[in-house]
Design a protein that fits this description.
The chain is of the alpha/beta class. It folds into two domains: 217 residues, Rossmann fold, CATH 3.40.50; 62 residues, Alpha-Beta Plaits. 38% of the residues lie in helices and 28% in strands. It has ten helices and 14 strands. The structure holds adenosine-5'-triphosphate and magnesium ion (MG).
């Protein structure tokens, strides 16, 4: 385990930001922290990169305690957030030359141009001062800076914020490429379900300073939102008379029908029953997206907590 977080707690002026979270990350794993605004994602990542001190609990990075050996931790980690560390008045080349000297990186220029090209930066951009960079360009250069430094652990705190869809896809594809080739451990925070599902091997869902679920994206979806949905259009004169204990409920609007399944494993039997009984067209099976799962789970979690506190 390269990252161990145990019962981590953090307060800001009496407000609880982290309420005792625990998780572990293996070397080379891409781990996602997924949660709505204010869930505690940035706070967690900042504590892991020694930018903030924890109030309670233990955080170990590569076997080093963040409180006792912060220098050791700092040498292993890098963090990319929506805010970058560049000097506005310097050009990209000058910035990167400065950082490379700071971190003792060799042949930085070749690496910079290689990684930059794959993200859609051009050589002429490197002559520009950072003050003249767009958000997206700055964010790309930020990733390039990290790739040049090449730490074993990388924290990405909503790195695609402010990128357009095309740049965001390029950014993810470069990340994926790097993660496939190198034994880099990555913690990725986001409220974009799609990118978390695409990039991460495991996800923790964080809500109001607590982890409500940890698991593989597929497994998590199944656990949190196991129902599947069969949609179809019914021939006008047909009447649907469907009974099966795998069915949770049926919605009908005109001749459009939605069958919600309680038990997704029996979907084929249900479909067979439908097509044997009535004439249908446009039949399709929908799988819940992580986004739906996430919203539902957060709502359920809030309801559970309200129910719990109403007894107190
Ligand atoms: N420096 C601070 N001072 C006071 N409160 C803070 C500070 N930093 C974070 N908080 C509070 O801690 C909680 C968690 O914030 P955090 O920034 O970790 O959430 P987040 O999951 O990163 O949210 P977002 O998706 O909006 O970035 C929030 O209630 C926030 O208001
Ligand atoms: Mg944040």
């Amino acid at each position: 385990m390269i990252i161990k977080v145990q019962d981590l707690g953090k307060e800001f002026n009496g407000t609880t930001a982290l309420d005792g979270i625990s998780f572990r990350v293996k070397t080379g794993e891409v781990f996602g922290l997924l949660g709505p605004n204010g869930a505690g994602k940035t706070t967690t990542v900042k504590i892991m990169s020694t930018m903030l001190l924890p109030d309670d609990g233990i955080v170990e990075i590569g076997g080093y305690d963040v409180l006792r050996r912060p220098q050791k931790v700092r040498a292993m980690v890098d963090i990319i957030t929506a805010r970058d560390k560049f000097y506005r008045r310097l050009t990209a080349y000058q910035n990167m030359s400065f950082f490379s000297r700071l971190y003792g990186v060799e042949s930085w220029k070749d690496k910079m141009e290689d990684y930059g090209e794959r993200l859609g930066l051009e050589k002429k951009d490197y002559e520009k001062r950072l003050a003249d960079y767009s958000t997206g360009m700055r964010q790309k250069l930020n990733l390039v800076r990290n790739l040049i430094r090449d730490t074993p652990i990388l924290f990405l705190d909503e790195p695609t914020l402010g990128l357009d869809p095309v740049s965001s896809r390029k950014f993810r594809s470069l990340l994926k490429d790097i993660m496939d080739r190198e034994e880099k451990t990555v913690i990725f925070t986001s409220h974009n379900m799609f990118e978390v599902e695409e990039l991460c091997e495991r996800i923790a869902i964080l809500n109001k300073g607590r982890i409500t679920s940890v698991g593989e994206p597929r497994e998590l979806k199944k656990r949190i939102f196991p129902k599947r949905l069969v949609e179809f259009t019914l021939a006008k004169e047909d009447v649907l008379n469907l009974r099966d204990n795998a069915i949770d409920h049926i919605e009908k609007k005109g001749n459009k029908v939605r069958v919600y399944l309680e038990d997704g494993d029996r979907i084929h039997e249900v479909i067979e029953k439908i097509v044997n009984n009535v004439r249908v067209s446009d039949l399709s099976v929908k799988e819940p997206t992580l986004e739906e799962a996430f919203i539902r789970h957060t709502e359920e979690d809030e309801r559970d907590q309200e129910e719990a506190t109403s007894w107190m």
